[in-house]
Fold this protein.
Amino acid sequence: MSTSTVAPVPPGSAPSGLRGRLPTSGVPLALVSIAGLVLLLSITRVITGADDLTSSGTAGAALALAVPIGMAGLGGLWSERSGVVNIGLEGMMIMGTWGAGWAGYQWGPWTGVLVGCLFGAAGGLLHAVATVTFGVDHIVSGVAVNILGLGVTQFLSVIAFEGVKGAGESQSPPLDDVATVSLPGLRDPLLTLEKHHWFLVSDLAGIVRGLFTGVSLLTVLAVLLVVLTYFVLWRTAFGLRLRSCGESPVAAESLGVNVYLMKYVAVVASGAFAGLGGAFLAIVAGNGYREGQTGGRGYIGLAAMIFGNWRPGGLAAGAGLFGYTDSLQLRRGGESVHALLLLLGVLLVAGAVALAVRRHRIAAGVSVVVGAAALAVYIQTDVVPDDFTTMTPYVATLLVLALASQRLRMPAADGLPYRRGQGG
């Protein structure tokens, strides 16, 4: 007979089984990465003359375009951390846009935001009932929510907006926008610096001006929700219980956690976040509800969450990346995207070398092929066709997911069926 001893765990340390799962402070690394990216963009701007790469207009547009993607991704993060795959984010976001448009023109934009969240939460509740209570396959339920969200909003639009001034069967009347805020004393001095087009200095001025002046209050709220999500899920007992349901629901139940309740809370919150992203599209990005205005952002939000490795910080970075590539098409897209091809090609080739050293041969091969193709297109063309610029966010989504797949770790029980008492 053999015996084994278990060394005592020092207070405050994590068990070995959880090592690598608990977040560590990555603020210095994030700051260094951001500084390096700004430096590379500045060098690219000087070489190519594409000033919109770091202009305040591009930075402001990127921030606004990142919000609905980030909110959809945040919804996916809450749901999947509890073990429920949620590809129904697009449908929940559609429901949020309609709810915001319907309530916003009658009772004001903030009421529209609240109702948009409630409509999204209703979609999340439907998904939770199907997956948690009845054990429906998560993918099937998510697809059904997407289809239902589109069909229900089309039906409700005919009923609610028919005969209303300024509205139609596929759109709401115009909505009032929410207020914007700015850090005082920055707008004019930074604009002066930006117009000089100095290396790095003007780039920093343009980016800071775009991110901190004329910012919608809904954008501020979205940023705070990302920070709050990190605190709640990784710094509270409630968050530990919720995440344990996504790692091992049987073990969580054995410790007294109400797994069904945690999953319900997470999936309903997931729908509310997606609904908030939809409300942002209707109230801030547009001036009312329009059929089809989500444009697949629910799916891109899901991709941003995966790119971020199911973490709030990585999710924010992914949403910012997709928002930035989307913003380029709004500001002389052909020229800006063409300049970005140079930076993309160089980064991908350099990344291929690093991946090859680490013996990630498949990822290295994909990286070098795509990087060489980007450089070839840059050298042989002067501008990118408009049809391609509209594809940029979606191409970026596929490319980022392909290259990030080597380091991803989803929650262990994500998408797996669970019935109460199955561990007994």
